[in-house]
Design goal:
alpha/beta, six-stranded mixed beta sheet, two-stranded antiparallel sheet, 25 helices, elongated
């Protein structure tokens, strides 16, 4: 694309934007009207300031795609253009009401007609209806033209209106009330017309960015969006994808819009960029967040590409939703998956998602998908929960593994494990990291601690327990706030080094902890631990005293057990 055709920019007021037969349309896929009273009040306050100061007010950038015969498509700016048009409609309505009341009737009708033809559109000679200079999107335009442009209340009141239609009508009523309040004292139509022509249309200034084609429009818009425009990244992606389907009729576009709505409802608007990146990373070389929009523009260039992408996204969206919620009914057909997803949620990891997207397509047996989820959960405990390595490597290895699965180079579970081996912390490193691990017994860290202690207890005792099902508290052996007697050998520094070490924690029945353990001396606590059903507490009677060395010894033993629990074979 030649640089000279990328964009043209001008500083224009509303009068210049709407002059010389120019017209504007909002593409049918753009989001509906969404400004509310807070936005309207801000605009009205800005106009009051402008009128008092007689200085220009900057209204931001409006991005336009140039069409034929002075026709433009609004890529960004529809909310402002629609609201200003409704404000002018409110002024026109007030002028007609003055004329109907006999106040300078002929002049006010002429003023109203001139404002309509200049800023809103000319009358069609056949229907005698106003054809607006601005056309809204597929959902809002009928109401905008048939009700607002004609200043006709909706039949049946507001109850039957869609949300955006109700906002449009309320916007008109808001500005109608403001105009009546502003000009009711003198009731001079000349002042109303001057307010529109000298303040609204001359003092509100836009930077208009005109581009020649859709790709240029979205290249510009992507840059502007990074500087704080109102559309989200998800809006930007949606608008680009659906712009490629723009030649479809409304009846053909509706199923596409419904499919998008289903996908975004499952994924969530805020999570959509993350979801889309995971989807892409399950099909192609690693894509960073900043490369997301450029990658879509490069890969998706035709209507068939859009349809294929939406179909793939809809299938992946169900899995993405399930991976975010281990209690989802989605996992009913995948025995054992719930526990693995719970662990992945507990350790707050998502980098594995591209591999799961690829595996559910390549491995048709549910048990294979569950087994791969188990690999990811074990890797997360080792890599994230204990050894705490940089997550950057995780994304690249999971991406590489996903491509090996999709490319047929990893057809077996063993091959998948081999692909993941670079992020499997070796046993000796994991054991050493676990032996030094500290965790706070509160919030998310406390839940992870409880999970690890329950797994170790199950491994040692053989009891069928889980951190969710067991009734136990997590006991500090060396208390966080030790009593005055029995802990004198722990100074301030040694206490700080010791009390949050994993080796200093044990599981204890709630009643025993509350009534008998607390911050008592270790020898008193041992008598309580001996009553416990948990092996990890009973075994504390083997220690003659509780020191830094005791904690280190116990934690080293726990680390060996942990290495056997969270393990993969190659």
């Amino acid at each position: 694309m030649a640089r000279s055709t990328l964009l043209n920019t001008d500083t224009e007021d509303l009068k210049e934007l709407l002059s010389n037969g120019k017209s504007y349309s909002v593409p049918p896929y753009q989001r509906d009207y969404s400004w509310n009273q807070e936005n309207w009040e801000d605009l009205w306050d800005d106009l009051a300031t402008v009128e008092a100061s007689r200085e220009d007010h900057y209204m931001g950038t409006i991005v336009l795609e140039t069409g034929e015969r002075k026709q433009f498509r609004i890529i960004d700016g529809q909310q402002r253009m629609a609201t200003l048009s409704i404000l002018i409609l409110a002024c026109v309505d007030y002028l007609y009401s003055l004329a109907n009341e006999g106040v300078d009737a002929t002049a006010n009708k002429e003023r109203a007609a001139l404002l309509e033809s200049s800023y809103l559109g000319a009358k069609d000679p056949a229907s005698l209806r106003i054809t607006p200079k601005l056309k809204l999107n597929a959902n809002d335009d009928d109401f905008f033209q048939l009700n607002l442009a004609q200043r006709k209340p909706p039949q049946g009141g507001l109850r039957g209106l869609r949300d955006s239609e109700r906002l449009l009508w309320n916007c008109f009523q808001f500005f109608k009330g403001k105009v009546e309040e502003k000009f009711s004292t003198k009731q001079e139509g000349q002042q109303v017309a001057a307010f529109v022509s000298e303040v609204v249309t001359e003092r509100l200034v836009f930077i208009s960015v005109r581009v020649q084609d859709q790709l240029s429009a979205y290249t510009v818009f992507e840059t502007l969006n990074a500087r704080g425009l109102e559309l989200t990244e998800t809006d930007l992606l949606k608008n680009y994808l659906l712009s490629l389907a723009d030649r479809l009729s409304k009846s053909q576009m509706d199923p596409v819009l419904r499919q998008w709505a289903r996908i975004s409802a499952r994924v969530g608007i805020a999570s959509f960029p993350e979801f889309l990146r995971h989807h892409l990373n399950s099909h192609r070389q690693y894509v960073r967040q900043k490369q997301l929009f450029k990658t879509i523009k490069r890969d998706v260039t035709t209507l068939d590409d859009v349809f294929a992408l939406l179909d793939r996204l809809e299938e992946d969206a169900a899995w993405f939703e399930g991976l975010k919620d281990y209690s989802s009914q989605f996992w009913l057909d995948y025995q054992g998956a719930k526990e693995q997803v719970r662990v992945l949620n507990l350790f707050n990891v998502s980098q594995y998602t591209p591999l799961v997207f690829a595996a559910k397509d390549a491995f048709t047996a549910p048990k294979d998908a569950v087994e791969i989820l188990r690999y990811c959960a074990i890797l997360s405990v080792r890599f994230n929960g204990v050894s705490r390595r940089s997550t950057h490597q995780l994304e690249e290895i999971y991406n590489r593994a996903a491509l090996e699965v999709r490319g047929g180079r990893a057809k077996t579970l063993l091959a998948v494990r081999q692909a993941l081996r670079p992020i499997y912390i070796p046993d000796e490193e994991f054991e050493a990291d676990f032996a030094a691990l500290k965790l706070r017994n509160r919030s998310t860290s406390g839940k992870r601690l409880r999970y690890m202690l329950a797994k170790i207890e199950k491994q040692l005792s053989g009891a069928d327990i889980t951190d969710e099902g067991m009734i136990a508290t997590v006991e500090h052996i060396l208390p966080e706030n030790p009593g005055e007697v029995g802990w004198e050998h722990f100074g301030s520094e040694s206490h700080d080094r010791s009390y949050e070490r994993v080796g200093n924690y044990s599981l204890l029945e709630r009643g025993l902890n509350a009534q008998q353990a607390g911050n008592a001396a270790f020898q008193q606590k041992q008598k309580v631990y001996a009553q416990s059903h948990y092996r990890t507490s009973k075994e504390l009677e083997q220690f003659p005293d509780w020191t830094e060395e005791s904690i280190a010894k116990r934690q080293a033993a726990m680390a060996k057990v942990a290495t056997s629990i969270w393990a993969l074979t190659f």
